[in-house]
Amino acid sequence: MGRYIDDILQPGEKVLYSTNAHWIFFAPAILLWILAAVFLALSGMVPPGSPLMLVCWALAAIVALVALYKTVTAWFHRWTTETDVTSLRVVHKTGFINRKTFEMSLDKIESVDVNQSIAGRVFGYGDVTIMGVGKSEEKLDMVTSPIAFRNAITAR
After folding, report:
1. Residues in CB range of 88: below 8 A, 6 or more apart
2. pLDDT for 97-145, tens place per residue?
3. Helices 51-79 and 27-45: crossing angle, nearest 10°?
4. DSSP class of residue 5?
5. pTM of the prediction?
6. Which candidate among 24, 48, 130, 149 keeps its CA 20 to 30 Å from the CA of 123?
């Protein structure tokens, strides 16, 4: 499966900048994996055969299943999300079977706003809002390197 942008490029159009959803989408899964490991470690600290040991194992298994689900959904989101700036437009695509795309001509963009939390500044992600002529507005969540993305749109 190729990239979406490669399938829709017009003659003479070039990709100037590509970005993706940030790895921070994996944060809930990472925290759940750590919690599962804590429950597993606690099971080793109680006497063998104790009912508390079985409870710890059960909790570790349940949390690990939820962590696995969160890991797969975060990976799938990152895999199916593309954000590109071409010489003519901004293109954002999410989804695999149920696809959602957003395209806006660079000439129709009025402003590009970046919103970064403290964690976003530290880890290099942020939300980008692209406002076009009229009432068109699109918010892209947790974009990697949002300042570089904004600069690719505004620098002409």
Report:
1. 10, 13, 105, 106
2. 899 999 999 999 999 999 999 999 999 999 999 999 887 889 999 999 9
3. 160
4. H
5. 0.81
6. 130
